Amino acid sequence: MTFVHDIETAAFVAAVEPGEGRRVAAQIAPTDAPVLSLDGPWRFRLGEGLHDLTPSFGAEALDDANWDEIAVPSSWQIAGLRDADGALLPRGEWRYGAPAYTNIRYPFPVDPPAVPNENPVGEYRRRFEYPGLAEGEHAVLRFEGVDSSFSVWVNGVAVGWGTGSRLATEFDVTALIRAGENTVAVRVLQWSAATYLEDQDMWWVSGIFRSVSLRTRPVGGIDEHRIRADYDATTGEARLLVETDVPATVRIPELAVSGTAGEPIVISSVEPWTAETPRLYDAEIASPGETLRVRIGFRTLKIVDGELLVNGSPIRLRGVNRHEWHPDTGRTLDVATMLRDIELLKTHNINAVRTSHYPPDPRFLDLCDEHGLYVIDECDVETHGFVHAGWVQNPPADPRWRAAMLDRAERMLARDRNHPSVIMWSLGNEAGAGDNLQAMADLLHAGDDRPVHYEGDQNSSYVDVYSRMYAAPDEVALIGAGVEPGTPDVAADARRRRQPFLLCEYAHAMGNGPGALIDYERLFDRYPRLLGGFVWEWMDQGITQVDARGREFVAYGGDFDEALHDSTYIIDGLVFADRTPSPGLTEYAAVISPVRLTVGSDAVRVENRHDHVSLDGFELAWRVEVDGDQVASGMLALPEIGPRADADIALPILDAPALADGQQAWLTIDVVRRADADVVPAGHVVGTGQRLLAERTRTLRSATPAVAAGDGWRLGPAEIDDRGRLVSLGGRAVTTPVLDIWRALTDNDSHVEGQGARWLELGFDRMLHRTVEVVEDDGAIRVETVTGAAGVDSGFATTWVWTAVGDAVHLRVRIRPHGQFRAGIEPTTLGVAAPGPVVTLPRLGITFALDGLDDRVRWFGLGPGESYPDSRQAVRVGAHETSVAAFQTPYAHPQENGARQDVRWAEISGSEITGRSPRLRIEADESLGFTVRPWRTADLERATHAVQLEPSDRTWITLDVAQAGLGTASCGPDTLPPYWLHPQERELGVTFIVD
What H or E segment, with its residue span, contains residue 758? Predict the structure, then answer.
């Protein structure tokens, strides 16, 4: 075969064409035709660039015995982080280069279509046995994914080359394959012209990262099959049309249905497919030469009056953006890992995935079909790096790239069109504008009836859904109401206003956050036009690494000595790198719960937020707890509550529980799965409601005078020196409490849109303390202090009043703005500008430390996980207990974490592990925020990786009057004004009891 671009020299490296020698790679299905997997060990050599190619690389006789072995599928950079036995290698000993992370910028000069000479080349070879072909049979070599460009030889003959890393590529090798031993050789270029289309905010890794197979195509085999399975919700009738490239028959045994491919089959009654009811029917498509086993889901999509309907009913997308990643295997996933994602998604109430920013491993779509997830299937196109070049030479606007972009859309459509889970096609992501994008949309519209999405088409002139990223809630409200600003094109504006609105990315889940999910959800509830949104993103794309001390840690951008990188921006998931759910995921699950409860005095309002199913599979479990101890419980049956309906259910008459001083009684109601439902187990709680039943105000014990002791005073268990410092509690040394307005900046605080820069400017991280006076006042010790930062006329005056109360000591703290903060600034409301400059605080409270490291903590308040003012839907009032270590949230990039709100009391103690110590009980006059750590805030702030945090010899405790919200400023709106914390006069009171 003659090629335009010489394969032997990889001359196609700068070619804008999509490839040569390929054939259409359509969707494959389980078949009775022979399939030989070529996954497994391959011989491998990594060359430095095109100047370092193995001569006669494709030749059968080439001696590759001394080459390394590498697993296929894998990426060579990831494989090279470990030795041949699988042990992690330290920095400097990596075998095949290293991963590199950039968000937007290309890791080479933007000079399309050229790429630099420094271009590693992976050379792969494998020998395999093959039984040979019968008369008329064909052999097809299929690659599911190779990054970025690659060329192929079979038995010494060049077959072709291809691009499109996350799409299947096939080569017909019938004329080359033989019975007995065969040799396949694949040369992979790390960079090529195709890389300009694949700038997708992820690790740059290369190689044959998805499966490879040799497929025997029998005479009369089915190379292409298209399934269209429509459902009429008004009649329950279905219409099936199966199209094949050869004559074939269709059978669905369960429905006793059979017919001929190419002819419509009408079925009088079927159970439809939705994400809530993922009903699939096993079917066979048979030709004289081959039988395919397929699974069919009947469903219909339509946009009506700005709403997306599935089977005639509007749906809400409660989604995530999902990159494919594993910390140990990179972009190569096994089915067990994909299924783990499905389980986590479903058990956290998520019903949709946007395959950011490329088509996923096709097995993931099979799982979405089976278990029920809506999918926006996104094409393998992103050119975001051209934004730094003013979008000059951007491929979507360059006619030279049209064939490559159309090729990617066509291959996505051919591979994935038969999946009922795929409800929308996306042209790609952050690729600017250009006629090539519209041409892709036209191709998809011509070939399929699913809606087409592309966020970059702000006028919605060629897409079917109006899509935005990170729009603030006030703007989303305008769009929901249909009163957003118009577009210059009147016709396009009218078209856009008839479309559903989708936040294809919102609520950036980087570090501690995102905040304000509930504010978006309330808007989604209010306006039918709002289709919902997809949180960015599903998981931290970290990589397991080992430091010089042999400790494993989660690596991010910059940890591989990249010359250009975007640091922690790759660590922005709802699950951590090991797929442990983050507090952000539990918060999201609570916000988007498909069943919402509002607990009243005599009834509970139950809202069914499902789009297609009733609440037959659920029940209500209630309990009454007094300070966390259960005193009564029971079950409530649910009546028939249909989709998007609600009902009030009477509560049982409850006896008033007996309360001791300071106690609270709470009624908690959980919505519980009655039986296993696919991957969601029986007993799984999908929603919770609470109500305070009764409380008894805490009364202060009788005060007793302070007793002079040495150069200070004794007040119950407390010793205070003559400088007003608390020096011990119950005989245990203490680092005295000080006013604390600082927190280790979160990723959201630190971003350019966050408030962290202003906080640093005002010196909140370097506050100094001055004692004004210490006096004995009516038996109590009163200490006056002023706290401020060097060079800044702002701070706080604080009054500390210590009072002995029997065998305990009470502290009352009054905090007042000082200097330029004196007047205070009132909070603003959403959408209303604040008068004059707005000063906000990270937190307002006190911090102190106990000598010695405790390891147990109990508290009564919100829990069990952390909570902040704009992220507290997932927590419930109750008594909670854990270790001090588990009290921390192990963000890969250390930052503020672990706060518990609305705490009424807390207890800290040691154990056999840390050494027995007296238990310290803290009782709050009013509920407050509570954090306990084995390290200081400064240690937390200095650490760049969680592994660097080592417990100190003290237990650090912070009691907050209030703390600022989290927001999502790392990408999106800053903390919303209702969750700001301003310099205002505040008080807190606590009693310390040591026993």
Answer: helix 756-761
Q: What is the DSSP letter of 405?
A: H
Which one of 123, 505, 607, 923 is the catalytic residue? Answer: 505
Q: Kindly report the CA angle at 635 between 633 and 641, in degrees rounded to 5? A: 145
Question: SS3 for 832-892, per residue?
Answer: CCCCCCCCCCCEEEEEEEEECCCCEEEEEEEECCCCECCECCCCEEEEEEEEHHHHCCCCC
Q: What is the pLDDT of residues 864-902, one digit of tens each?
A: 999 999 999 999 999 999 999 999 999 999 999 999 999
What whole-number distance in Å separates Cα of residue 67 and Cα of residue 75?
17
Q: Give exposure, 203-216, as e/b (b: 16+ Cβ within 10 Å).
A: bbbbbbbbbbbbbb
Give the confidence band of 833 by pLDDT, cuts at 50, 70, 90. Answer: very low
Among 235, 244, 184, CA closest to 64:
184
Q: Which helix (H) or strand (E) holds 521?
A: helix 517-526
Phi-psi region of 360 (alpha: psi -120 to 50; beta: other; left: phi over 0): beta
Active-site residue, 224 included: no
- Domains in the chain: ranges and CATH: 11-217 (2.60.120.260), 225-302 (2.60.40.10), 317-380+416-422+444-589 (3.20.20.80), 597-695 (2.60.40.10), 707-994 (2.70.98.10)
H/E segment holding residue 103: none
Residues 500-534 have pLDDT tens digits of 999 999 999 999 999 999 999 999 999 999 999 99
Bridge-based pairing of strands 198-199 and 382-383 is parallel
Q: Which of 144, 430, 484, 607 is catalytic?
A: 430
Q: Are 804 and 781 in contact (CB under 8 A)?
A: no
430 catalytic per annotation: yes
> Is the bond leading into 113 cis (omega within 30 degrees of zero)?
yes
For strands 552-555 and 685-695, give the pairing: unpaired
Tokens representing 662 are 């300071």
Q: Establish how many alpha carbons lie within 13 A of residue 346's alpha carbon, considering only the half-sphere containing its beta carbon.
A: 26
By the 8 A CB rule, do 180 and 132 touch?
yes
User: What is d(CA 428, CA 434) in angstroms, rounded to the nearest whole number?
Assistant: 13
pLDDT score for 753: 84
What's the pLDDT tens digit per position in 529-572? Answer: 999 999 999 999 999 999 999 999 999 999 999 999 999 999 99
CB 267 within 8 A of CB 198: no
* 224 Cβ contact partners less than 8 Å away, ≥ 6 residues apart: 24, 26, 244, 245, 414
DSSP H or E segment with residue 736: strand 732-740
End-to-end CA separation in angstroms for the chain:
87
pTM above 0.90, yes or no: yes
615 CB neighbour count, 10 Å cutoff? 23
Find tokens 């894998």 and name the residue.
74
Encode 50-87 in three state secondary structure. Answer: CCCCCCCCCCCCCCCCCCEEEEECCCHHHHCCECCCCC
Percent composition of the chain: helix, strand, coil (DSSP 3-state, to 5): 15, 40, 45
Please provide the size of the chain in residues.
995
Which helix (H) or strand (E) element contains residue 335?
A: helix 335-347
827 has a pLDDT exceeding 90: no
Give the whole-angstrom CA distance, residue 499 versus residue 604: 36
Secondary structure element (H or E) that encloses residue 670, with its range? strand 664-673
Of the candidates 743, 767, 764, 745, the one whose C-alpha atom is nearest the C-alpha of residue 936 is: 743
Rg of the chain on CA atoms, in Å: 32
- Residue with the two structure tokens 């790198």: 577
Q: Which of 304, 307, 350 is nearest to 531 (CA)?
A: 307
